[in-house]
User: Which sequence fits this backbone?
């Protein structure tokens, strides 16, 4: 009788039979972002496995077994197998914000908008670099000119977007911007972009948002040819076992980009059709990543050589060449409850003018950083130090050291979840800066969240160098300070008849910056100044629908930026007043397709008043990619055909820099499983 | 009128004595540094890194005419050619060491013919008595601007290979010329050492040289005070030259008034200095990017303020140096001014 009642009770509670053993499927996710966590070690009594890039795992375990999960950058978690069905394990981050691999877009986290993308989505559209990956993301403005990429989120300037690779800042300490074109897609798994000031976590520079790239996993060999002499090969080999994973790879790409374009800037009575010259490039890179339960390693080196053709109708740069070499290394380990990591970066650039032109100019930037993080009770603490050094032609060697200490906590307060962070940065030759943030979230059928924060950005080495003595009255630059970054957000996730799911989110934001460091043309060349007030406000809406094999997404945003220098109200260049887009992915066993439409509204091309004379027209660009998958003895063979700018709109992303228009790409890849 | 060449709102503003007038827009890529005004026609150029064009601007009739400069020519100063070999405008082509003669048809872009043997670095040009006079910077302007000797004035006859050269002894880096009857006022910017940038050294100051074009003789040269650099000159309606120069290596600017007849500094000056005393209504000193004067000697000063360089014309009293009025022009980055 007791046994029967026990079984009845167990059935009512859906408790497992503790004696039964079998394969259990589950997923390990980041507790804040809900993104799947790769390379987490899941250990049970009988087996020890490692999660896949999307966080999924399958383990042989008995009912009532306890699974222990460990992953560098997160607090260890345990889960008792009490219920039937898939296992979902949420891991809390340690203070080190290691990005996780994600295969599906997350609706949001910690009261801020987060968008994600993976390398496969860029590859289906013919992409080959991190810049191409960024271009697939909603709400992210990407401008590529002469092979260099400039990012903008929520009305920010490129130097206000912090770009990281496995936690290593990639922004050049000399210029403040990160160049994504040099990072091959083969090295990457995906990207997540968090919008809004993140000074409380990342310190200086993350005043507009953070783009976190993370290295990929898996083995792949791929080749690609495209219009205008573009060719690329890339490959990565992965060896994974219970002890850990190592991945080695490289990429090479070259292209002429000698497309024809219409020169509308000449003085001739009619426009002329010309061919782009000195627009070729060559890129080569190699990378190594390794991970085990207690340590991680990343090494990346890339070199690029390219022509630096100028805007249309300007021949003065037809002989200019640029060469860039970039190296990044990071090692992370854990010692008891403490996570430790150290990173190093080196960027060397050289610019050569054509015959009879200005002499060659070179610049070199190096950075070293160390940090430690550990949980203490309900707090996550982190501290670290770094040093940046820059030198170059006519540029005296200059260095700057910095140190920081921060704390982060997440607390559940009844129906609310509150997350707070505070970070103190001390930067050489600048005062100490305190950056707080507070998020309050109410999860539910409709999740509501509100976020406020502050941040700052110290002048880059170029800012300091060119600030004196280019202006009529010389004033030393002070760090720009985000006095307020606020966001309110509502998001909902619902099913539709059990055959699909729909997510929707709407955000309103405002960011106010004092002493924004903005470059203006002066009486002797360009130079930076502190602008008393910068304001960015707007709203963003996103809707996504998912059903097996099909994903559809649409987004739209409205942006209003304002720079006030005390005399003139100006707009931030290249921030559109309206922007949006949509994408439809279909993913079948043998066929995958992606069609992406991107709308960019009118936008100013210079820092000036909002008048039509100073604006670029609105554009809509359509990209299409088709993949055919075929299982072979050696793995999955994928053939890719893609067309960018299908409608041949030829937008000017940067004023007077023409684009190629409609261009095709064809690729072939081989991987053990779907890339 | 004011030429706006920096910032977002470029072009020429035609202002009244007390109110801003319309702005004749020039492209955002325009990067000129000076203009020539005769009656109601203005001429200006943009470098090879800007738009590489010459602009002929009829202020009343409207409609900016453009002429494409030869590739890599890096045009500098320009003026009306007054029919020299049938051309409407003449332009100094620094990097190619030539003089461009620009002719406009009834419509469309202008065409350029080129003359040789006009110096090693032609920097400005002006017409006089049927000839063109070219200011030769005399440096390697197609490379690193290394000086090749004293600056020169070179006379060019129409339809002739004849050239007369007037050497300007001790004058380096001459960049501008202003005609006043048979006299030419040649401005030179002096020499500055940028090799240790951002530390800058002003080696030699700017200067004004007076040349009698009939006798082809140098009348005299007045150097600006040591420790200054640059010389953006304008002929005021009162007969004086108004020269703007950097007065220190922080690139603050001051205005010098020069009596060309005596080659001496004139006007109400700051104590211990040759710069004009110009005082804003706020009590702060007036900083002029360019300056000229009316017949009464009231100084018309181009002031650029704020990061966006909003331009105003501030008028200062000749006798007291006090601000009389300010007119916001509606443009940005004013670099030249002329009264008409």
Assistant:
């Amino acid at each position: 009788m007791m046994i029967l009642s026990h079984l009845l009770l167990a059935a009512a509670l859906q408790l497992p039979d503790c004696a039964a053993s079998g394969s259990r499927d589950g997923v390990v996710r980041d507790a804040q972002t809900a993104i799947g966590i790769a390379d987490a070690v899941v250990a049970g009594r009988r087996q020890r496995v490692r999660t896949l890039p999307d966080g999924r795992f399958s383990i042989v375990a008995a009912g009532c077994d306890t699974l222990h999960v460990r992953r560098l950058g997160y607090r260890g978690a345990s889960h008792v197998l009490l219920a039937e069905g898939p296992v979902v394990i949420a891991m809390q981050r340690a203070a080190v914000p290691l990005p996780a691999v994600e295969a599906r877009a997350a609706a949001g986290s910690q009261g801020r908008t987060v968008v994600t993308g993976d390398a496969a989505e860029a590859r289906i559209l013919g992409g080959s670099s991190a810049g191409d990956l960024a271009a697939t993301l909603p709400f992210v403005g990407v401008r590529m000119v002469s092979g260099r990429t400039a990012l903008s989120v929520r009305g920010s300037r490129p130097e206000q977007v912090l770009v990281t690779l496995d936690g290593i800042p990639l922004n050049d300490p000399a210029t403040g911007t990160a160049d994504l074109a040099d990072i091959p897609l083969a090295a990457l798994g995906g990207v997540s972009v968090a919008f809004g000031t993140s000074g409380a976590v990342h310190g200086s520079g993350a005043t507009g948002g953070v783009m976190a790239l993370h290295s990929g996993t898996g083995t792949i060999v791929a080749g690609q040819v495209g219009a205008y002499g573009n060719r690329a090969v890339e490959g990565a080999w992965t060896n994974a076992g219970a002890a850990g994973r190592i991945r080695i790879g490289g990429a090479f790409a070259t292209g002429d980009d000698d497309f024809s374009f219409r020169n509308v800037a000449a003085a001739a009575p009619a426009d002329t059709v010309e061919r782009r010259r000195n627009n070729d490039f060559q890129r080569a890179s190699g990378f190594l990543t390794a991970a085990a339960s207690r340590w991680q390693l990343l090494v990346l080196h890339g070199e690029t050589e390219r022509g630096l053709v100028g805007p249309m109708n300007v021949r003065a740069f037809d002989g200019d060449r640029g060469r860039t070499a970039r190296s990044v290394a990071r090692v992370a380990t854990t010692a008891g409850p403490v996570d430790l990591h150290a990173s190093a970066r080196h960027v060397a650039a050289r610019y050569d003018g054509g015959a009879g032109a200005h002499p060659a100019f070179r610049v070199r930037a190096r950075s070293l950083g160390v940090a430690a993080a550990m949980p203490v009770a309900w707090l996550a603490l982190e501290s670290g130090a770094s040093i940046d050094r820059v030198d170059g032609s006519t540029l005296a060697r200059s260095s700057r050291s910095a140190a920081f200490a921060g704390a982060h906590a997440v607390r559940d307060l009844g129906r609310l979840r509150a997350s707070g962070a505070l970070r103190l940065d001390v930067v050489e030759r600048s005062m100490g800066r305190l950056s707080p943030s507070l998020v309050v979230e109410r999860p539910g059928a409709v999740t509501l969240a509100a976020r406020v924060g502050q941040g700052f950005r110290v002048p880059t080495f170029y800012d300091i160098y060119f600030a004196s003595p280019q202006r009529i009255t010389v004033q030393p630059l002070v760090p720009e300070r985000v006095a307020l970054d606020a966001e309110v957000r509502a998001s909902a996730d619902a099913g539709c008849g059990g055959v699909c799911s729909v997510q929707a989110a709407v955000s309103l934001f405002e960011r106010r910056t004092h002493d924004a460091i903005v470059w203006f043309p002066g009486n002797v060349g360009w130079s930076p100044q502190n602008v008393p007030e910068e304001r960015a406000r707007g709203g963003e809406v996103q809707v996504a629908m998912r059903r097996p094999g099909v994903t559809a997404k649409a987004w739209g945003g409205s942006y209003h930026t304002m720079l006030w220098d005390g005399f003139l109200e100006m707009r931030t260049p290249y921030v559109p007043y309206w922007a949006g887009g949509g994408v439809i992915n279909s993913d079948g066993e043998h066929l995958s397709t992606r069609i992406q439409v991107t709308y960019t509204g009118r936008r100013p091309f210079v820092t000036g008043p909002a008048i039509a004379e100073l604006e670029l027209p609105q554009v809509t660009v359509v990209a299409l990619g088709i993949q055919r998958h075929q299982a072979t003895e050696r793995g999955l063979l994928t053939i890719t055909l893609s067309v960018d700018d299908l409608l041949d709109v030829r937008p000017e992303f940067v004023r007077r820099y023409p684009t190629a228009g409609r261009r095709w790409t064809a690729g072939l890849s081989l991987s053990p499983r779907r890339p | 009128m004011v030429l706006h060449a920096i910032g977002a709102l470029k072009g020429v503003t035609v202002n009244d004595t007390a109110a801003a007038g319309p702005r004749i827009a020039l492209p955002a890529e325009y990067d000129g540094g000076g203009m020539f005004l005769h009656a109601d026609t203005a001429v200006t150029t943009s470098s090879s890194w800007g738009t590489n064009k010459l602009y002929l601007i009829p202020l009343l009739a409207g409609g900016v005419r453009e002429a494409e400069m030869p590739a890599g020519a890096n045009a500098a100063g320009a003026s009306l050619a007054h029919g020299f070999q049938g051309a409407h405008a003449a332009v100094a082509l620094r990097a190619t060491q030539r003089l461009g003669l620009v002719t406009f048809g009834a419509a469309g872009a202008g065409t350029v013919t080129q003359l040789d043997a006009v110096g090693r670095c032609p920097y400005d040009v002006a017409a006089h008595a049927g000839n063109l006079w070219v200011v030769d910077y005399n440096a390697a302007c197609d490379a690193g601007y290394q000086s090749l000797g004293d600056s020169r004035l070179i006379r060019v006859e129409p339809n002739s290979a004849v050239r007369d050269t007037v050497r300007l002894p001790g004058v380096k880096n001459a960049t501008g010329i202003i005609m006043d009857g048979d006299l030419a006022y040649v401005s030179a910017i002096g020499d500055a050492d940028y090799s240790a940038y951002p530390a800058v050294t002003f080696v030699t100051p700017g200067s004004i040289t007076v040349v009698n074009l009939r006798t082809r003789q140098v009348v005299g040269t007045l150097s600006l005070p040591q420790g200054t650099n640059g010389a953006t000159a304008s002929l005021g309606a009162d007969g004086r030259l108004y020269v703007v120069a950097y007065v220190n290596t922080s690139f603050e600017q001051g205005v010098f008034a020069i009596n060309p007849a005596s080659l001496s500094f004139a006007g109400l000056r700051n104590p211990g200095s040759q710069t004009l005393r110009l005082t804003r209504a706020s009590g702060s000193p007036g900083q002029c990017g360019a300056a000229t004067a009316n017949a009464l000697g009231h100084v018309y000063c181009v002031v650029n303020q704020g990061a966006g360089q909003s331009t105003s014309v501030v008028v200062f009293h000749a006798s007291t140096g006090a601000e009389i009025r300010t007119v916001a022009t509606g443009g940005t980055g004013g670099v030249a001014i002329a009264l008409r």
